[in-house]
Design a protein that fits this description.
alpha+beta, Thrombin, subunit H, globular, Methane Monooxygenase Hydroxylase, Chain G, domain 1, 2 domains, about 190 residues, disordered C terminus, 7 helices, 5-stranded antiparallel β-sheet
């Protein structure tokens, strides 16, 4: 991999960690070889990590998506989806694989699936942590891509997750109402 794949001050997504900023590219000695490393600061966890440049691709580190791709991810979470497996261990493994893959669509898929699952039944602790992590990564990346605040992005995300809005009880009852038909009464007599 070319050392110039990412530049200093470039925002990137490290799928299992979050959105970060490349603060420098440094060389360190390892087993008699000088190895270039990306030094990435992750503001959400106030952590700085070093990633060998050669491993950035295998770790699925990628640039922030374009605003168009960010909006597509927001729209995606509002779409219909196939129900998740009921076995939480299988569902957890499936979603961990998606998180490791790291595309914004995969992360949006985790958020959508686990959000709706949590409305049916409380999520196990590991799944809840996975949901929280995926939601944080999704919101952070979209906020950077669209240059919006976390609050604006959170509002957009939950607006899509809760679409279509549930009808109020009164509206639902009105839809079920039956009109009185005087002619029908005459037929009965």
């Amino acid at each position: 991999m070319n050392i110039n794949t990412f530049q200093i001050n470039q925002r990137v997504v490290y799928p299992s960690q979050g959105v970060g900023n490349i603060v420098s590219i440094e060389e360190k000695w390892f087993k008699d070889n000088k190895i270039p490393y990306y030094v990435i600061y992750l503001a959400s966890s106030d952590m700085t990590i070093m990633v060998p440049v050669e491993q950035a691709v295998s770790l699925r580190i990628r640039p922030i998506v374009s605003p168009k791709e960010a909006m597509e991810a927001i729209d995606f979470i509002g779409e219909d989806y196939d129900p998740a497996p009921s076995d939480w261990k299988l569902r957890y493994q499936m979603n961990m694989d998606r998180l490791r893959n790291g595309s914004i669509q995969d992360i949006a898929s985790i958020v959508r699936l686990l959000y709706h699952r949590s409305k049916v039944k409380e999520l196990p602790i590991l799944e809840r942590k996975l949901y929280d992590s995926a939601l944080k990564i999704l919101k952070d990346e979209i906020a950077v891509s669209l240059q919006k605040s976390q609050e604006e992005v959170e509002s957009l995300v939950f607006e899509k997750l809760e679409w279509p809005p549930l009808k109020s009880l009164d509206e639902g009852l009105n839809d079920l109402s039956i009109e009185y038909d005087a002619d029908l009464e005459d037929d009965i007599e």
